[in-house]
Specification:
six-stranded mixed sheet, globular, Rossmann fold, about 280 residues
Length: about 280
């Protein structure tokens, strides 16, 4: 891959507690081009911590190290907090899981979207309002003038997630990290939200890291998939080949999913192997 948008080499994250240290992310390496990259794995596999480390939003108790963590020509490991405040939002945006915990409950949603634009662009309040209204319309929200004036508790889950997408994408970032953006939504609304996100990513040319538990969703939505287990990347493969994955962990994840074409009385239970934590990683960039 030439001139990657993001390059990660040997990323490690340790959490230091009172009695023990947890090695949450262990030696993760990958390159991201102009593509939709899915990161899948069980809870605790290090998916979200990897995304937060790229944004330099890890918890204070975390120690993050990497041989390289580069966004284009920018060395993120060496970037100051002042530099990161400029990069976050304008160049790299993060869509979180539940908008009700991400939006300011006391501020109208339209003003929050407009504020996200004004932080990175020197424009008047009136111009920011028009940009926010256009962005609400672009995420397929009917009557954006009305939605602009309401508070977060007045919106549904699907609309709230569209508002979050609008807020994160209004500065036109080059990289979007979506951390379980549809897990709290029902299947129909989930597909609608993903269609909106896909449309905006295609239109702006942004790269996307899509973090999810849903292997079927990632296989349909993404171009490439990283499979994580115990903080490591066990497999890196094209999304279209996910159903033919070779690593026993990926196979176990796939076998644990219910299938309409193969009904079973009981789903397979994963038998984990200690070697998955230490064996050489195949297919990793």
């Amino acid at each position: 891959m030439t001139d990657p948008v993001l390059s990660v080499r040997n990323l490690n994250i340790h959490f230091h507690g009172a009695t023990r240290t947890t090695h949450a992310v262990r030696g993760v390496s990958f390159d991201l081009g102009h593509e939709k990259l899915g990161i899948v794995g069980e809870s605790g596999s290090g998916k979200s911590q990897t995304g937060r480390a790229i944004m330099k939003l890890s918890a204070p108790s975390a120690r993050v190290t990497a041989d390289a963590l580069r966004f284009g020509a920018t060395d993120l490991m060496a970037a100051s907090e002042k530099q990161m405040r400029t990069i976050r939002g304008r160049d790299i945006a993060m869509i979180l899981q539940d908008p009700k915990f991400s939006l300011n409950p006391l501020m109208k949603v339209g003003k929050q979207i407009a504020e996200a634009y004004r932080i990175h662009h020197r424009v008047s309040a009136a111009e920011a309002r028009q940009k926010a209204l256009a962005m609400l319309e672009s995420v397929h929200i009917r009557n954006p003038e009305r939605v602009y004036e309401i508070l977060p508790h007045e919106v549904s889950g699907g609309m709230g997630q569209r508002i979050m997408i609008a807020m994160m994408l209004i500065p036109e970032p080059k990289l979007i990290i979506a951390d379980e953006p549809t897990s709290a939504l029902d299947v129909t609304v989930r597909r609608q939200v993903l269609a909106v996100l896909d449309e905006l990513v295609e239109r702006t040319g942004a790269s996307l890291i899509f973090i999810s538990h849903d292997l079927n969703l990632v296989a349909d939505f993404c171009d490439r998939v990283l499979v994580m287990y115990a903080g490591r990347v066990l497999e890196d493969l094209p999304a279209r080949d996910l159903g033919r994955a070779q690593h026993p962990y990926t196979r176990a994840l796939l076998d644990s999913l219910p299938r309409l074409d193969d009904p079973r009385a009981e789903l397979a239970v994963m038998q984990r192997q200690d070697s998955w934590r230490t064996a050489p990683i195949g297919g990793q960039a």
